Amino acid sequence: MTFERLRRTLGQTRVLAIFRAKTSTHFVAAAHALADNGVRALEFTLTSDGALDALRQLRDESPDLLAGAGTVISPHDASDAVAAGAQFLVAPCTRIDTLQRAAELGVPMIAGATTPSEIVTAHQHGSELVKLFPSAVGPAYVKAVREPLAHIDLVVTGGVALDSIRAFLDAGAFAVGLGSPLTGDALETGDIARITERARTALAQARR
Question: Any catalytic annotation for residue 131?
Fold first, then answer.
């Protein structure tokens, strides 16, 4: 798995689906529903019970999808996630030792950052895409950061609403990560049908 495939897949839709819930019971069904509606990059967060088992199942059932693990903080997290089939890793922070472990495993990692110094540090240590977290910094901040750091592509996550997708992309974000605005309460209730409309709305916003 390479950064090039990750970049290409996210570049096609500009949307990364983030799955976070108490348990991962409905993750695979929700992933299939999103994939059926055009979302091809999916992140299962390790803070959800059973996330790695769900990731294994999804990789077995749909090897063509781009499935990764989120909230990967330590090198041990990275190893466990890759062993479960993660094709990419995402973190809310930048830890150089974890980026090094991801490189050893041959799996791309999107490290998290907020300030320009953190963004540059993440990029210099192998995070070719950097997660700008949280989105509360706003589109104006994205635009301001991108002016001196135009060579670093940012994936904005952490509270991006469906109606703010376009503003972040117009400000220069490479892609956005969407959690509950995309999945709603489906990951808790199993009401997967409601995901379809949200997925279509998200992708329409990203394409405008």
Answer: yes
Q: Is 43 a catalytic residue?
A: yes
What percent of the chain has pLDDT above 90? 94
Question: What single DSSP character describes residue 23?
Answer: B
Contact criterion met (CB below 8 Å) for 72 and 82: no
The structure tokens 């290409």 sit at 8
* Homologous superfamily of the 3-207 domain (CATH): Aldolase class I (3.20.20.70)
> Which residues lie below 8 Å from residue 144, measured CB to CB, with a gap of 6+?
none
Instruction: Name which of 116, 108, 63, 104 is nearest 85 in CA terms.
Output: 63
Domain boundaries, the chain: 3-207
Count CB-CB contacts under 10 A for residue 118. 17
Q: How far apart, in whole angstroms, are the C-alpha atoms of residue 181 and residue 54?
A: 21
pTM for the full predicted model: 0.96
Report yes or no: 47 and 71 within 8 Å, Cβ to Cβ.
yes
Give the chain's mean pLDDT: 96
User: Which residue in 4, 104, 128, 131 is the catalytic one?
Assistant: 131
Q: What is the pLDDT of residues 94-143, one digit of tens each?
A: 999 999 999 999 999 999 999 999 999 999 999 999 999 999 999 999 99
Classify 70 as helix, strand or coil: strand
Task: Check 22, 43, 188, 197 and give the catalytic one.
Answer: 43
